[in-house]
Design goal:
Layout lengths: L1 E9 L5 H18 L2 E6 L3 E8 L1 H12 L4 E10 L11 E2 L8 H17 L5 H18 L1
Length: 141
């Protein structure tokens, strides 16, 4: 089982309707593949977390990397013993009535700095970013 967290920059405008359509299509695709995760959009950048069996996850991630609607900036991966968010085929966490923005903004800012400076995400930083996912799991359940 693998988890992936990536940051990308939108190449087009995304309004509420287009984000909802993206969420619904992603949820259906993920359900078929046995994947789960969430999507966060801050108005210009996407933060997406995906988890599932590697043989299903990696081909989808390659397809996402090639999607012209966004520019793939960076990613980090980790092996996981079990899914963090098994009920979320694709959750748009902006729709949740919780103050979760701080976690996502922290991750977006951290990954953006690494991209802008050309830094490499080492295993320690990756581990810390995924620990934030564990925090998100605790506050959403």
């Amino acid at each position: 089982m693998k988890a992936v967290l990536y940051l990308s920059k939108a190449n087009q405008e995304f309004d509420k309707e287009s984000l909802k359509a993206l969420e619904l299509q992603s949820a259906e695709n993920n359900r078929k593949l046995g994947l789960s995760g969430y999507l966060y959009f801050d108005g210009s950048k996407f933060l997406q977390y995906l988890e599932g069996e590697e043989e299903n996850l990696m081909p989808l991630l390659n397809k996402i990397r090639e999607d012209s609607r966004h520019e793939f900036l960076c990613e980090t991966q980790e092996e996981i013993p079990a899914k963090r968010f098994p009920e979320w085929n694709m959750k748009n966490i902006q729709s949740m009535v919780l103050e979760l923005g701080l976690v996502e903004k922290t991750i977006i800012q951290t990954l953006s700095i690494f991209v802008e400076k050309g830094y490499h995400l080492d295993k320690g930083i990756s581990r810390d970013l995924f620990k934030l996912m564990d925090h998100l799991k605790v506050v959403t359940f």
